[in-house]
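Is adenosine-5'-triphosphate placement plausible here? Inputs below.
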Amino acid sequence: MNMLFDGLPRRALVALGLFLAVLLVAPWLVNAYILSLLVVVLYFAYAGQAWNVMMGFAGQLSLGHSLYVGLGAYAAAMMFTKFGVNPWVGLLVAVATTTAMGAIIGFLAFRFGIGGVYFAILTIAFSEFVRVGFDHWPWLGGSGGLFLPVANLSSNDLLNLRGAPIMFYYVMLAMCVAALGFCRWLLGSRLGYYWQAIRENEDAAAALGIPVFRYKMIAVMLSSAMTAFAGVFYAFYYNNLFPEQIFSMGRSIEIILGPIIGGLGTLIGPIVGAFVLTPLADGLSELLQWAGIDVPGVKQVFYGICLLLVVVFLPNGIWPMLARRLGLEREH
Amino acid sequence: MALLEVVGIGKHFRGLRALHDVSFSIPQGAIHAMIGPNGAGKTTCFNVVAGVYKPDGGSIRFDGKPIAGLRPDQICRAGIGRTFQVVKPFPGLSVLDNVVVGALNASASVAQARKEAMRVLELLHLADKAKHPAASLTLPERKRVEVARAMATGPKLLLLDEVMAGLRPTEVDEMVAVFRRVNQETGLTILLIEHVMRAVMALAQHIVVLHYGEKIAEGAPQEVVKDPKVLECYLGEEAL
Ligand SMILES: Nc1ncnc2c1ncn2[C@@H]1O[C@H](COP(=O)(O)OP(=O)(O)OP(=O)(O)O)[C@@H](O)[C@H]1O
Ligand SMILES: [Mg+2]
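Reply from A.M.:
I modeled the complex. Tokens:
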């Protein structure tokens, strides 16, 4: 436990505590719209954190993370609707499925020396394969979608993840906190050092005794395992799954924008990114809707502009700059 | 028995004969040098020993075991540390973290690796740069980080590829002193590729000379530098 907070200046601890406290009471202070927005923010913070393990820590670019969200979602939804298995047990099936998928992609790529851009393309290709597969799998609804029975929203059933948005909010918040702590631990461990070495220079990493293949595999598998939870959550929060949507490349991009804009490879970056991007994009489309302007693709254009601004003005992302300004940086 | 025993290794790159039938051996605790003109195959020889390239033929024994064909990380774990002629730092990591990655090879925990890394940084006069990002260093400093990282892996044999290049004479003498000290105190065996003859003459007990991928001479430094074949292809330019 000690290690998690090692080297953090006092004010960083205070800021972290305050932020968490605000998030803990927030649902009781905001309206339903803001609450639903916050759920989405936390969802992206979590998914971004999971993606960041692979790209931010180990330098392996996945542009197909919606694959793991989708597989996780379908695995748990299948267990629930077809076999009556509760989502927490379903989560185990989801994790096993996404981890196996990650292992297959990682093995094919790393075993045959596919890296960089080609690896990224491979992740997209797999995502598309699987999407088409689910589109044509009638047992799970095919392209017509898979639906979870919507329960009475007035009672919260945590075991079956049936209930009001506020329950989902706290579940997601707990997962975000857990993911943050876990990633902090990872980064300070042997694994974290090895990953960063591989990210920075593979040849040098190998020359220092690091079995590069094995540690890249671990990164992909761990990241896909973590992402499974985002999928399970998605399934039980939205109650409907369409291959077209959940496996789409656009969803993958949405996952990775947060960490990139917040600060790639940092622990707080994915959280900052989610808190900046999601409300802005949503607010913008609300605003346009209110003004009666209907521009298709406005969200994508907005994401594009944000990405451009960050790449040009803050190439390391928002968080490293913010941390420095506010004196919240970790001491080494 | 020799710590490293290289027998008849060769390496071709698409018709280019980078190494041909090269043999040499290094006894435990010795400092040897490998010299030769540009493109002679010195770095290729290191890469073959360190597992970056598989030799076309021949055998390599380290510490009594055959190592030809092993991967670079396996060879590092077997006890051979190496630096890269074209430095490959981890630019985004601090100098300390660069060396910690190396030290983890021989440490049971991250805490222990940090301690070991700090010790090596002090040895190489880099302690005051520990927290700087590696990307901010000058080239000679980066070369020293290369050395520190390789040393931190706890090797029995250290392969140094032109780590003195670009140093001022006083800095060369400083590095020479460091290597001599480590060699005497810990018995670390060293093979260095070097064009800086000042360092070679000060450190090496034995020199191997490569030319067009072949070993054209070897022996005690005083004799090798007088060898007509060596003078003709390499040292001659300066001597004449
Ligand atoms: N990966 C490679 N592919 C093709 N040719 C290579 C490769 N590596 C080295 N060579 C060639 O092999 C020959 C030997 O190169 P090497 O780098 O071993 O020389 P060197 O003795 O280290 O020279 P220098 O003193 O300039 O560092 C050169 O002709 C070089 O161009
Ligand atoms: Mg060379």
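Short version: Chain A has a mean pLDDT of 92.
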